[in-house]
Amino acid sequence: MKIAIITSGFLPVVDGVTVSGMYRLERLSRWGHQVLLFCPDYSSLESVYPNWRDYSGEILPNVRVVNLPSTPFMDLDFERNVGVKANPILRRELEAFQPDIIHVDEPERLFFGLFRIPGVKYARQHNIPCICFFRTNFLDYAEDYFPLPGWAIALIQFIIGSIFIWIYNAYDVTLVSSKVTHPKLIEMGIKNTQYVNLLGFDADKFSPDLREEGFWEKHYGLPEVDRRVKLIFLGRLTPDKGWEFTFKSLPALSQAIDLDKVAFLVAGDGSIRDEIADRVGKFTPHIHLLGRVSPEDIPALLANSDIHVTTSEKETRGLTVLEAFGSGIPVLAPNSGGVVENIENGKNGFIYTPQDSEDFTQKLKQLVESFDLRQAMGANGRKQVEQYSWDTTVQNLVEIWQQQIRDRHVD
User: 347: how many CB neighbours lie within 10 A of its CB?
Assistant: First the structure.
């Protein structure tokens, strides 16, 4: 099968979308499919990503990455989005490749760069299927990035939401990988949705067996961390990730928990990195910002932590939740968004009431103070991820592609 994938982001940018995209390509390459992947050009961010060329061109057998002309994305100094200059290149490459199907990740984000619905026109002209994957609910992020009155935010969400519905309904199918998000999309007015398990987990890479004595001193020069209960925050350091709630909860945390026994480990980078260091640092000196961590290093990082904490209320799904479970550590998360889909409250982690600092604090206190509870929850988490192998979830996607191709030939 010849598959053209148009995506809003790819490695070396590290987040759930880009990492899962790479796992997908690895399987497709191994199974003999031909893939042409389009993504933004990151050459202008070489000071941030000196290794960007590793993810351009022929990166795997039968897999070629084409970097499209790009522009800054939402004033983030580590992100890019495709621009209008990409359109003729996209068209030319598709004509040369002649795909059997086009798959588009986050088409709404791409639309606001290309100023057209990506892939649809070419697919219709050549009578091939064109499907998309709903990844991120950008509408929920408006209040995090636009300091406007509530009525103005609501108006923006209505206008942009109408555009989003139009974009997604232009595709043959809109795939969604969250049972929590799926009914919300139907309620929005997206009529072509299909739920399928597409979020994978690499059980061969994530394991509690990666835990080692003196890990933090040996690999990060932080011997004091090895002696403390380690809370790991993993992801982009941007306003939409719930950090304002974390800041608000720090006074209650400092009263309920002896923070001298806890290390705050923050893996990732973004626009509020300095603010996190400053505001958390006022309550504890034991905060360590690790910066961007290579995907290859994440398994050991998680296995040598004790609790994965996320305060983000706007995730479509939570890849880091599965990775934490695979590493044998519990998760603390808000009862909001797709992160809760795999958390069984009290069994493999805790779910707290959104924006409730007291509930958040009391549940974190239990985890910090009980080694046995963390161990039991970590063991239960390992059982939870067995159904999420990348082989299974990528095969689910391949079967959808193949069915779409068959249906088009029947038509």
Answer: 14
For 235-285, the DSSP string reads: S--SGGGSHHHHHHHHHHHHHHS-GGGEEEEEE---TTHHHHHHHHHTT-S
The distance in angstroms from the start CA to the end CA of the chain is 19
Report the distance separating Cα 51 and Cα 45, nearest Å.
Answer: 10
Burial class (CB in 10 A: 0-12, 13-18, 19+), 230: buried
Cα dihedral sign, 12-13-19-24? negative
Closest CA to 385 of 331, 309, 305, 310: 331
Q: What is the dihedral of CA 85, 88, 92, 98, to 10 degrees?
A: 100
* Cα gap 25→332, rounded to integer Å: 31
Q: What is the mean pLDDT of the chain?
A: 91
Residues 6+ apart with CB under 8 A from 392: 197, 200
Q: Is the model's pLDDT at 404 over the cut of 90?
A: yes
3-state helix, strand, coil in the chain (%, to 5): 50, 20, 30
Residue 45 contacts by C-beta under 8 Å, 6 or more apart in sequence? 52, 77, 78, 80
Kindly report, residue by residue over 82-103, the tens digit of the pLDDT. Answer: 999 999 999 999 999 999 999 9
Helix (H) or strand (E) holding 303: helix 298-303
Mention every residue, 6+ apart, whose C-beta is less than 8 A from residue 183: none
Tens of pLDDT along 189-226? 999 999 998 877 777 889 999 999 999 999 999 999 99
Residue located via tokens 């003729």 = 88
Please state the separation of Cα 376 from the chain's center in Å.
Answer: 27
Q: Is the pTM of this model over 0.90?
A: no
Instruction: Select from 110, 141, 339, 354 the least CA-distant residue to 238.
Output: 141
